[in-house]
Amino acid sequence: MPVEESGYKKRGEPKKFDPDFKGPIQNRGCTDIICCILFMVAIVGYVAVGILAWSHGDPRKVIYPTDSLGQYCGQGKLEKKPLLFYFNMMKCASPMVLLEFQCPTPQVCVEKCPDRTSTLLTAIKNPPDWEYYKSYCREDPGNMPVPQILQKKLCPAYLISSKPFLQRCFPSLGKKGEVITVGDKETFNDGDKIRDAKDLVAGMNNATVVMEGRQVAMKIFEDYTKSWYWILICLLIAVVLSLIFIVLLRYLAGIMVWVMILLVVAVVACGIAYSSFKYVNLKDTVGSNITLKELGFQPDFSVYLHIRQTWLAFIIILAILEVIILVLLIFLRNRIRIAVELMKEASRAVGCVMSSLFYPIFTFFLLTIVIAYWGITAVFLSTSSEPVYKVFNETVCPHARQTCQPENFTSSAMKIDCPKSECLFAFYGGETPYHKYLILFQFYNVFLFFWCANFVTALGQMTLAGAFASYYWAPNKPNDMPAYPLCASLGRSLRYHTGSLAFGSLILAIVQIIRVLLEYIDHKLKGAENKFARFLLCCLKCCFWCLEKFIKFMNRNAYIMVAIYGKNFCRSASDAFFLLMRNVIRVVVLDKVTDFILFLGKLLIVGLVGIFAFFFFSGHTDAFKTAAPSLHYYWVPILTVLVGTYLIAHGFFSVYAMCVDTLFLCFLEDLERNDGSPERPFLMSDNLRNVLKKKNQAN
Predict the structure, then answer these.
(1) Is the N or the C terminus of the chain less surrounded, counting Cβ atoms within 10 Å?
(2) Nearest by Cα to 153 from 169, 141, 161, 135
(3) Would you list the domain boundaries of the chain?
(4) Would you tell me the Gene Ontology cellular component terms (predicted)?
């Protein structure tokens, strides 16, 4: 007895009977007030960072192309010049393009791309051609001689017939048989010599890294415009199937679990039988009696399948596994039955609180706001810098990548040392205090994103837990339940427990931001040769992954206890932890059984809707050919339907899983609080009492 008492104390004291306890406590006070205040201050700071970013940022920097002076094509005074023109496209073949994402050649905004091929030398002799040619110059060269124009790089040495794409002018290359052409010609004059049209290909490949992706994106967008209503119909089917599955769990949960267990036993037994069959058949085969030790290591693993000892090892391993499974079934059969009954009870609870199935829509709406705010703020922060100019040169230059000023670059020492260099716009940065702390604002943006997203998720968990706890502790279900259990639980969570929600979310956000930093460090160390550092980093990533999973599990159960008893986060987490530790085997069995059933449900729903979407959009079935839209890529709506169906099923089943977890904790509390006497009756369902062989005594 002393040993049992000491073990119980290690796992916390069980709850004692409270005659006034009737479910989630109504008379409660605010919890974790300091965390609530800290969260509010952090939100105010988050809004301030957003306002600061919006006042300095300019998303046009990632939308519109910029010329060599950092001006936006198609904006402001360049409103009528929306296209970017490269003086020498072949310079874009330089590796510098991939390093700095900038071609080492002057770039100007133009009204339209050149529709003819000519050189500066030929155009300057013909006034009409020269007038046309000057529209592609950085500035009007006046009567300046050609060598001086080229030296100052005021005008391109040549023009090539081009077409606009991605708001940039690219040579209109074609083919005559196997020969690449530009403007229907196989060669062009670059102002210095005659070149083949194929010389432009390398430059275009670097300058149009996203060309093919943009074309695909446009086709995908067109497919969405043609198929969006059919996608919505498929997603509506997913909603209906998810509801049907949750309702059917009330009747089929037991069958599904036991059939699954029998199938596992049967599969292992078949493995033993097949291994035995192969072992016997190889008896008289030449060379099959050699031992694995004598055979040694063989790169072709199929060789081992011709050895009897291999199949004997399979028989022994599978037999041990079968015995373990059967022993576990014998000793855990009652706990499996409890898990099945709890799942059936959860289906009834969801039926009594049908509004809970639509609560994920509210959570999704809040998460959309959080994600949108984070994304918009991140874009404005990343575009709130000033234009920075650097020296670009296609040859070796001591001043390469150094900052410069385009206004006086032509007379600077850098230009004298590197005559072929150019001072071009490189990226956006700055030296002001705001720009110096920009990285901290970005970090704060990411951290608050995690904190707010976790808070929204926690709010949903606590709200659902309070609603389902009202169902369990109602003596006469559903008559003794509150009129609007979900709304009442949401009100309690926000009014009294914002601090507790913020506390749990903060702990999780800290772990998640550490994981992000570890991923960033790992990315930086990709090419590092220090294997110990890589190993240590890998261990840290694994440990923090496990820590995040554990914290999510503890937070979930802590929120359930907060929703029921109204205590602070730490006390609730402690009570939940010790309650689960006192019933650790039941926890493991219920968790695995629930995970498996919900996995089957998601697989079934996604599979059914996915198969329907495939046959409909692919046109492989005659019945759907007339109704199906004509698409560039039929996999676009199919993938959209699959992802959407999974999210819908996950949303519905997350409610169901929360219901199971809540009822399970209430069930464990019920066992510790009550004994079935008239004064302390069990509030669990009759089926659960029958599984436990417990009864409520009559008055």
Answers:
(1) N
(2) 141
(3) 2-54+230-379+437-692, 65-204
(4) mitochondrial outer membrane; plasma membrane
Cβ distance 475 to 357 under 8 Å? no
Peptide bond into 637 cis (omega under 30): no
Distance CA 672, CA 21 (A): 13
Tens digits of residue pLDDT in 246-269: 877 777 777 877 777 788 888 889
Alpha-carbon span 598 to 245, nearest angstrom: 10
Instruction: Give the bridge partners for 170, in sequence order.
Output: 163
Tokens (6 digits) for 516 = 């992000």
Q: Which residues contact 47 (CB under 8 A, 6 or more apart)?
A: none
pLDDT tens by residue, 566-620: 899 999 999 999 988 888 888 888 777 777 777 777 888 888 888 888 888 776 6
d(CA 197, CA 161): 11
H/E segment holding residue 174: strand 173-176
Which pLDDT belongs to residue 82? 87
Which bin fits 173, alpha (ψ -120 to 50), beta or left (φ > 0)?
beta
**Cα angle, residue 678 at apex, residues 675 and 679 outer, rounded to 5°:** 75
In DSSP terms, 392 is beta-bridged to 422
State the helix-helix crossing angle for 635-673 and 531-565, rounded to 10 degrees.
Answer: 60
Distance (Å, rounded) from C-alpha 181 to C-alpha 171?
Answer: 10
3-state secondary structure of 77: helix
pLDDT band at 207 (very low <50, low <70, confident <90, very high): very low
Token output for 31: 């919890």
Token pair 């389902």: residue: 468
Contact in structure between 183 and 116 (CB atoms under 8 Å): yes
Roughly what angle, to the nearest 10 degrees, separates helices 211-281 and 308-352? 120
pTM above 0.85, yes or no: no
Identify the sign of the CA torsion 469, 470, 476, 479.
negative
Measuring CA to CA, which residue among 559, 546, 552, 553 is closest to residue 590?
Answer: 553
Distance CA 423, CA 387 (A): 12
Length of the chain: 699
CA distance 82 to 62: 14
Between the two ends of the chain, the Cα-to-Cα distance in Å is 33
SS3 173: strand
